[in-house]
Amino acid sequence: MTPKIELRGLHKSFGPKIVLDGVDLTVQPGESLVVMGGSGSGKSVLIKCILGLIRPDSGQVLIDGEDVTELHGRAHDKVLRKFGMLFQGGALFDSLTVWENVAFGLMRGRGMPATEAKPIALQKLARVGLLEDVAELSPAELSGGMQKRVGLARAIAADPEVIFFDEPTTGLDPIMADVINTLIATTVRDLGVTAISITHDMASARKISTRMAMIYGGKIIWNGPTAEIDRSGNPYVDQFIHGRAEGPIHMETRS
């Protein structure tokens, strides 16, 4: 089976700081992968390299077996159409209504007229459990949990093949976080899409993933099925998933 996403020897530095130091990672179609690691470990840079927002210094990014590392212009735009994204803060536009936010990519990115885009937006809102009367509200009138739902509806609006989730439960209370985690897991499964998530929330990571990978020192130091995370045998992974101060990972502090 051709991997949906494959990273080969990915390197990226910013000045003297090495962020990615030969990352190798494979994501199969239909997998839900969570990439975990401490702040500044390179998780976001990794995602941006996949999306083509950052060019790696060396290495390859393959999507469906095609090397997309050096793509530009329309060729890159064509690849981007395979992706959907749920941003950390929701990233909704205050000046647009809820349905316009959901349909933003359809109308602005694909030139779809509003008369065609609005029914699709309403359908996606229904999929994430929001009624039609929410569609005409502004994002400011929604709770944090509802904003996350709108963000998810926007992420799936164009029927993507891959969805990226950036800290999907940030700012939510534990109960609402669990509601969003359940919704994400159900949506990914029902749509049959491939998912890649970044999260520090281990409860979220366990619930939404089928596979986990940990990045440390610019490399993937462990990856495997979520069910095996507690038996990884890796002291770095063990320290991270249990949130222990003592261990091989030393956090920089200023006195």
Break the fold down into its secondary structure elements and pairings.
Blueprint: E1 5-14, E2 17-27, E3 32-36, H1 43-51, E4 58-63, E5 66-67, H2 73-80, E6 83-86, H3 98-102, H4 104-110, H5 114-127, H6 144-156, E7 162-166, H7 174-191, E8 194-198, H8 202-208, E9 211-216, E10 219-225, H9 235-242
Parallel strand pairs: 3-8, 3-9, 6-7, 7-8
Antiparallel strand pairs: 1-2, 1-4, 4-5, 9-10
Helix pairs in contact: 5-6, 6-7, 7-8
Q: Could you tell me the radius of gyration in angstroms?
A: 19 Å
Distance between the termini: 52 Å
Shape: globular
User: How large is the count of helical segments?
Assistant: 9
Main pleated sheet: 6 strands, mixed
Described by its quaternary structure, the protein is: single chain
Structural class category: alpha/beta
Secondary-structure element order, N to C: EEEHEEHEHHHHEHEHEEH
Helical residues, percent: 25-40%
Let me know the average pLDDT. Answer: 91
Strand content: 15-25%
Number of strands: 10
Residue stretches low in confidence (pLDDT < 50, at least 5 long) are none
Strand sequence of the main sheet, in spatial order?
Answer: 6-7-8-3-9-10
